[in-house]
Amino acid sequence: MSALEAERLSIAFGGVRAIDEVSLAIEPGVVFSIIGPNGAGKTTLFNLFSGLYVPLAGRVLFAGKDVTGLSPDRLARRGLSRTFQNLQIFFRMTVLENVMVGRHRHETTGVLADLLHLPSVRRQNRRTREAARAALSRVGLEAEAERRADALPYGALKRLELARALASEPKVLLLDEPAAGCNPVETKELDAVIRSIAKEGITVVLVEHDMRLVMNISDRVHVLANGRTLAEGSAAEVRSHPAVVEAYLGVHGAQEAANAFG
Amino acid sequence: MSVRDLSRHPLAALAWIVPIITVLPLFFPSAYYYRIGALVFIFALAALGLNLLMGFAGQVSLGHAGFLGIGGYAVAIGPAYLGVPAWLAIIGGAVLSGLIAYAVGRPILRLKGHYLAVATLGFGLLIAIVLTNESAWTGGPDGISVPRPALFGLNMRRSEPWYWLAAASFLLSAVIATNLIDSPTGRALRAIHDSELAARVLGIDVGQAKLAVFAISAAYASVAGSYLALFNGHITPDIAGFLNSIELAAMVVLGGMGSVVGSLVGAAVLVVLPQVLTILHEYEHIMLGLILMGCMIFLRRGIVPSLQAAWAGARR
Amino acid sequence: MLAESLQFFFSGLTVGAVYALVALGFTLIYNACDVINFAQGEFVMLGGMTTVFLALAGLPLPIAALLAVAVTVLMGLALHRLAIEPARGASPVVLIIITIGASIFLRGVAQVAFDKNFHSLPPVFGTNPIQLGGATILPHSLLVLAGAGAIVLLLWLFIDRTLIGKALIATATNRLAARLVGIDTRRMVGLSFAVAAGIGAIAGILITPITLTSYDVGTLLALKGFAAVMLGGIGSALGAVIGGLALGMVEAFSAGYLSSKYKDAAAFLVILLVLFAMPQGLLGRGKVERV
Description:
The structure holds three protein chains of three kinds.
Chain A: E1 4-13, E2 16-26, E3 31-35, H1 42-49, E4 57-62, E5 65-66, H2 72-78, E6 80-82, H3 95-102, H4 111-116, H5 119-138, H6 154-167, E7 172-176, H7 184-199, E8 203-207, H8 211-217, E9 220-225, E10 228-233, H9 235-239, H10 242-261
Parallel strand pairs in A: 3-8, 3-9, 6-7, 7-8
Antiparallel strand pairs in A: 1-2, 1-4, 4-5, 9-10
Chain B: H1 3-8, H2 12-15, H3 17-23, H4 31-56, H5 65-82, H6 86-108, H7 113-133, H8 135-138, E1 144-145, H9 159-181, H10 184-194, H11 196-201, H12 206-232, E2 234-235, H13 242-255, H14 260-276, H15 284-298, H16 303-315
Antiparallel strand pairs in B: 1-2
Chain C: H1 2-33, H2 40-56, H3 61-84, H4 92-113, E1 130-132, E2 135-137, H5 139-161, H6 163-173, H7 175-180, H8 185-211, H9 217-232, H10 237-257, H11 263-277
Helix pairs in contact in C: 1-5, 1-6, 1-8, 1-9, 1-10, 2-3, 2-4, 2-8, 2-9, 3-8, 5-6, 5-8, 6-8, 9-10, 9-11, 10-11
């Protein structure tokens, strides 16, 4: 049974098919990357997976169950989490509070208890804070916990979003261009974090442009172009696939991919 | 004492209000000042509720006085026509306001920005129009008188007991609102304010959260409206009018969005200043308009946040 | 029955024309600087009231009207320069409260400078109603419609055919880009306020013989104009006109067939319904949020 599956998904915007009959199946516990040129529909696919868009046709399956059309918060409660290409940080809250929001689906106190600040709420706050700190230390941000989020630099904010998504203890984690804007050192650290996440059994789905990271870390790679599947396979298979090389990687990109294995 | 500091010492910020409340009356030269004080706390209560909606959750309501009206007429109609005691009517009004907010909020809160503003505007106006037109129940444009409640044998015709009642009610509500800051519901609301998208994908039912805060803020306003009607002994449909809605919103913005104490400050400014200027009765609107414009232009972040920023800057 | 409907149609058209002009003024300013100017209703009020009092002071009507428009335009410019410009960059709620404060201020000024009574102006073409299809229509109503139509046409010509008009559109579309090509955007926004004030004033002068005027007609007018903008779709000039006319129709017909007490409510009820069903309004464009 796949962790996340797309069954002939299609969606159109103003007459243009952004995703056209895309099917893919992601096994549990793997690192699965989706690559493709700009405008290929990668983020659109993510939005379909996370319930932000409703498909025109096709189905989305989560742990074998049909979740097509479910709202993002219901998907989140089933164990799906994601980060965003354009950061969606809670800038008015502290770093720690941002990650605490990530624990929301594990918090059980109701509105009334919250208003009265009952002991159950206090206990839960403590647990939430601890779990949030743990998530922060995984991405190396524990020192920034009390700072307001809008004081952080871009690279740190990307890590914050990752920590926030991790805090929700997802079964499937969608990462939308986590390495965008990162320098090589940060990318290497990101590589390590993703590996540790995958080792816990969390299924990681990556949309990325950084070929080095993709080729190094992925168990499987799915190539999109113009909203359609171009190829799928292991990293090695994909980088030497003629259609992929031609459409996307180009000569230069193919060399980079080769170097990653060299 | 930003929201962040408050989450570490939730009630510390409110603690210093208590001595001020108790010491201030010592300086009151006459009973009139008790009246002003009572009005300040009553409006602060309504502003606090609106602050939860606007400051925390980032929504906007330009029709909130409608709920003032519902609460106000509840204590007018309840005892007079339904034989219900005042305290029960207050609760009834709050529940009714909450239910109406829940019903109307579902479709309204899906809107954003200017659309939300005009929808709430229209809603508030509709309530005012209904209150004006249904004269059989409401006494029409001239309103109806409100029987004074009996409270532990105190003479509720005087302003003094109202001052203490309103202040205590505000304080209690402020504690409840502050509790919200460091709680899952509060964090969810603040998250919605900054990014509805992210809030959604983290499992927050955004629609439900907005609805809850809208209902709570409606209840706050309703209780304030009930107090207002009982205090004045009379109520007219103007209570639910556009002017009051704008003043409430201005109190929230002026005091500082998201600042519990700011609700009190904003209410104080917008209640006291016009009173101070009643000598210029003819020029009341001119003055009010200038005050609104001036405060928004020069203190646009709100008084409390501006003071906090200045304090933080001075300490460096 | 048909005659009755026609009657409502005429009155709806007339009052709708005024709403359309108010809505147009809103749209002009909103497009130029993203501000909802609640004082728009006061521009209408000032046009009518100033004309009335200048005429009472002895000035011939045409001069009084011209001066009234000029005074109102100056008010519009002052509003922009003194209240809107200093608050540039503030959040939308703050800006809304500023314009509402301005509207309250202008209402207070009118209350003091004029008085609190209702006033009228003599209708230009006499008071004999014209018979049309079983219904009557005042000759002045035709003037209102013609005037509104002329204003819309002139505005369209101005924006489409003159350089300044194009500069105004450029400012509305992308302020930064407009500045980069050398347009003085601050002056353009001021221009939009001036034009909106002028339109409002003319609308006020046109409608006074029919609906009378007083110091506080501005508020409800602004609210309805705002509602008309939402109905037509915010940001669309054509939508503003259509929204205004539609709103006038809804009001007239519901007042006629349902209850005149709830005439004002009908307008807001319709607005709420439209917002729920078509949040973009009749002609607005939906925003696609990029994730």
